[in-house]
Amino acid sequence: MTDRATTALRVLKLRRSDLKRCAELEQVLFPGDDPWSWAAFAAELDEGHFYVGAYIDEHLIGYAGLAVVGRAPHAEAEVHTIGVAPAHQGSGVGKALLRVLLVRADEQRATTFLEVRTDNEAAIGMYRKHGFEIVGLRKRYYQPSGADAHTMRRPASPAETAETFTAEDAS
Question: Looking at the whole model, is its pTM more than 0.85?
């Protein structure tokens, strides 16, 4: 087990060499809801979407992705995914990943959207703390489980400074 007190978390641009690990984490994190494959992650990178990884000692423990379309003042961003290894959940990794995505969205002055399972109270709470509000319900959004999702929205905000979170080379 990694000693969280002495090991620094780094958020960096996701490396293609880490896509296999992303797909492995997907199998663990989303077993009932069509986990993403290596090819799905590769397609996201090939499309030019913004993906970052959370690393401790070069080991990928989480990942997150964002797509931005349009230009300010009408730009929109969508959080495509955030995943954190179970051993590191609740330790601020998801928060660090989300903050990096939001900085990117804010740089584009984009309103940001996401979907989250209605029963994922921890994630919903984290999103609310970062300015998201529930704006809709998507029945049976997640397949094949049929779980419902909230659609959440966060208005565009002025870009944060890099000092507000621990991130390196994430641009």
Answer: yes
